[in-house]
């Protein structure tokens, strides 16, 4: 395991797991959100996003955190392992609500001067609420990664489905 893609729903713990795994493997950690989200939450143009991801995944080892379909072909063509965090919805939403509350109260910078707005916890539109996004995407991600894990195009990848925090701790030790 030297080139790992960590995927899963928002709030599943991708970033924490990917950072820990990168440290264990002694390889660079790459957070796709930090590349994609420019100041003011503006998206990096697709061409530039793909170029940056192509450059960082050309290295011998890395752990990439993120679900971006715009670059999945680049990441997974070079990945030897995909760690799929498929935790129960209730676990994901509990973790996400706590994380979002902490980030909004402390005004912690996420990437490129961006901070989570408090209003994002209460909006109904999934594109404006990370919690609503996680609720609506849970089944989508589960179906997507279950299907992709057996797709012939990805036969070169070792898929590790993690469905509990205990399993994640075992993987990371």
Feature tags:
173 residues, alpha/beta, Rossmann fold, five-stranded parallel beta sheet, two-stranded antiparallel ribbon, 7 helices, 47% helix, 16% strand
The CATH H-level homologous superfamily:
P-loop containing nucleotide triphosphate hydrolases
Strand order of the largest sheet: 2-5-1-6-7
Number of helices: 7
CATH topology: Rossmann fold
Summarize the structure.
With 173 residues, the chain is of the alpha/beta class. The protein contains 7 helices and 7 strands; from the N terminus they run βαβαββαβαβααβα.
3D architecture notes:
The chain is 47% helix and 16% strand. It contains seven helices and seven strands; from the N terminus they run E-H-E-H-E-E-H-E-H-E-H-H-E-H. A five-stranded parallel beta sheet has the order 2-5-1-6-7, sandwiched between helices. A two-stranded antiparallel sheet has the order 3-4. A hairpin with a 3-residue loop joins strand 3 (37-38) and strand 4 (42-43). Helix 3 (46-56) packs parallel to helix 4 (69-78) and helix 5 packs across helix 6. The protein is globular and about 40 Å long. It starts with a strand and ends with a helix. 28% of the residues are buried. The mean pLDDT is 91.
Please write out the topology.
Blueprint: E1 3-8, H1 14-25, E2 29-31, H2 32-36, E3 37-38, E4 42-43, H3 46-56, E5 62-65, H4 69-78, E6 81-85, H5 89-106, H6 130-148, E7 158-162, H7 165-171
Parallel strand pairs: 1-5, 1-6, 2-5, 6-7
Antiparallel strand pairs: 3-4
């Amino acid at each position: 395991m030297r080139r790992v893609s960590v995927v899963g729903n928002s709030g599943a713990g991708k970033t924490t797991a990917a950072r820990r795994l990168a440290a264990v493997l002694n390889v660079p950690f790459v957070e796709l959100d930090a590349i994609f989200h420019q100041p003011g939450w503006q998206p990096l143009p697709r061409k530039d996003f793909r170029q940056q991801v192509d450059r960082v995944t050309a290295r011998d080892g890395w752990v990439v955190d993120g679900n971006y379909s715009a670059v999945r072909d680049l990441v997974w063509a070079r990945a030897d392992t995909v760690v799929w965090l498929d935790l129960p919805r209730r676990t994901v939403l509990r973790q996400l609500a706590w994380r979002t509350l902490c980030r909004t109260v402390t005004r912690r910078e996420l990437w490129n001067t961006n901070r989570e707005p408090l209003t994002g916890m209460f909006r109904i539109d999934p594109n404006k609420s990370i919690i609503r996004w996680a609720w609506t995407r849970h089944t989508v991600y589960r179906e997507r990664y279950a299907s992709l894990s057996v797709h012939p195009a990805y036969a070169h990848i070792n898929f590790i489905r993690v469905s509990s925090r205990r399993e994640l701790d075992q993987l990371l030790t």
